[in-house]
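re: that chain from earlier
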Amino acid sequence: MAEPSFGWFEDLTPAVMLERQVLLLALAHPWTGIESDRLRTILHRTTTHPIAELVDATWSLQRRGLLNIAPEPDDPEGGPCTYTLTSTGSALADEIREQALACGAYWRKRRLDLPEVEVVDNTEGKGYRTVVFYFHNLVNESGSRPFATWTRGEYYVRLWSAEGTFRDVIGWPPRRLVSSESVQELAGAWGPVAIRVQQYRIYPSPEA
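^ sequence. v structure.
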C-alpha cells in the first residue's frame, strides 16, 4: 500500500465502485431496505445518465444474488422500488466495511509521527448534528482539502472533494454503536484524519 491517498477505492472501475456503494448503503438500511429515490439522493445521482448507471449497478447485483429488488419496476429506467441485501450480499458488504477499518488502522500505524486528531466544536453550545473530518496531507493546489461528513442518526459517512462534489460512501449496520470516534475509524480509510469538527449545521442539507 502506498502513502496515504484514496487509492484503495479509486483503483476500482467506476462500475465496481458504484456497486460497492450500493451494497454499503443497503447494509446501512437492513430492516426496511433503502428506497431507490433515497439511494439516488445519497449518491448524488439525480440526473438521467447517473440514474442509468445506478440502475445497471443494482440489476447487476441482483443477477449475482447479492441484492433484492422489490417490487421489480416495470420502467426499464428504474421505477420506484426498494433494495435489500441477500445473506450473501450482506456478508460481502461486511467484508468491505472491515477492509475500510483495516485501511484506516494501517495509515495510523504506518505514520506514528502523526499528531492526535484535533477536535473542534463549532456548535456554539447547540450540540452537534454533523461531524466533518479533514485529512492529513491531502490538499489541492488552492489549499483546500477533501473532507468526509457524518450526520447523527445516519449509518453511513460520505467523502467529498474539496469543491463539495460527492466521491464515496461507507455504510455499516445500524445495530453497531455509533459515535463520532467510531465513524472516524471508518473515515480513516480515505486517509489519516487530522481534524474532527463538530457542528450544528447539517452538510449537505437534509435530504427529503
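The chain has six helices and nine strands.
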